[in-house]
Amino acid sequence: MARPLLQFNDNGIYCAAGDFYIDPWKPVDDAVITHAHSDHARWGNKRYLAHDLSREVMKYRLGDIRLETIGYNETIFKNGVKISFHPAGHVIGSSQVRVEHKGNIWVVSGDYKLEDDGVCTPFEPVKCHTFISECTFGMPVYKWKPPTEVHDDINNWWRTNASEGKTSVIAGYSLGKAQRILQHLDLSIGKVFLHGVIANTHGALLRNGIHLQEATRITSDLGRDQTKGGMVICPPSALGSPWMKRFHPYSFGYCSGWMTLRGAKRRRAADRGFVLSDHADWDGLIQAIDATECECVSLTHGYTASFTRYLSELGYDAHEAHTYYGGDEGVEEDSVLEESVINASEGEDV
Amino acid sequence: MKDFARLFTELDETNKTNEKVSVLKNYFISVPDEDKIHTLAIFTGRKPKRQINSTLMKLWAMEVSSIPQWLFEESYQVVGDLGETIALLFPDTDVTNDKPLSEWIAEINSLGLMTEEGRKQWLIDSWNIMNRQERFVFNKILTGSFRVGVSQNLIIKALAEISGLDAATLTHRIMGNWDPASFSFYDLMQEQDASDDASRPYPFCLAYAIQETSDKQKTAEEIGEHLGDPQLWQAEWKWDGFRAQAIHRGGKIFIWTRGEDLATDKFPELHSFLFDLPEGTVLDGEAICFSEGQPLPFNVLQTRIGRKNLTKKILAESPMVFIAYDCLEFAGDDIRSMPLKHRRSVLEKLHQHSSYSGIFRLSPVINFKSWQELYELRLTSRENYAEGFMLKKLDSVYQTGRKRGDWWKWKVDPLSVDAVMVYAQKGHGRRADLYTDYTFAVWDGDKLVPFAKAYSGLTDKEIKQVDYFVKRNTLEKFGPVRTVKPQLVFEIGFEGINRSTRHKSGVALRFPRILRWRQDKKMEDADTIETLRSMLDA
Question: Domains of chain A by range and CATH?
Answer without folding.
Answer: 7-141+278-339 (3.60.15.10), 147-274 (3.40.50.10890)
